[in-house]
Specification:
With 235 residues, the protein is of the alpha+beta class. Among the domains are: 95 residues, Sandwich (Immunoglobulin-like), CATH 2.60.40.2420; 33 residues. The strands form 2 sheets. Strands 3, 4, 5, 7, 8 and 9 form a 6-stranded antiparallel sheet that branches. Strand 7 and strand 8 form a beta hairpin. The longest helix is centred in the C-terminal third of the chain and has 32 residues. It starts with a helix and ends with a helix. About 11% of the residues have low confidence.
Amino acid sequence: MSLSRRTAARSVRMLGVTAASAALALSAAGTALACDISEFSAAAACDGTKGVITVTDKDPTGVPAVITVFLENNGADLRQVGAEQTVEGSKKGVTVSFAEDWEPNAVYRVHIVAVKGKKTFVDADISPNVTSPSKACKADTSTPTATPSSTPSGSTSTPPPAETITPSPSGSTSDGAAPAPSASNVPSAAVQESNLAETGASSNTGLIVGVAAALVVVGGGAVFFGMRRRGSSHR
């Protein structure tokens, strides 16, 4: 049994509607999964005592996104904050930080560029701009706790004994020179006179004088007798 032309046309029309519906569904799904500026957020926060600008990427497709932060002044870029950073988001979110000692109520513009292959998904600013809190980050005012001394306050430490200086021997000096005589070693005038007297008036001196006198007498006698004999011979 052959189908009529009307039935065939109806079947073709139904297939076309089904294909179009499927194409629209796939297109909608692809659009939902694409990277979008709404998946990015930014805030000014404190990291301890220092300020930071944080940017979070919740793109589940993980399209690489380049983030640049600018400090605003009356709607114009005053300066760039740090260097641009690249992030690949996730469904849970990936956060990057820009160190910035922001002042209260400062305004920052965060620009996102997400490109994959030759397709650009995002090239826009996070809206609205980021405004820092009205209070700056708290400074660290904690003071270090003093460490108690190991020595009790009521006790006093005994100083180490002083080194005993051993006198060097008198016969040697460090430079080899003879030491200068002290005042106690210099003989007095009376002692010198006593030594001189002992040297000049010893018992040996009397003996020598006696012998010399005897020799003079003997020599004089010899000369006398010699002259006498000589006179006798001339007569």
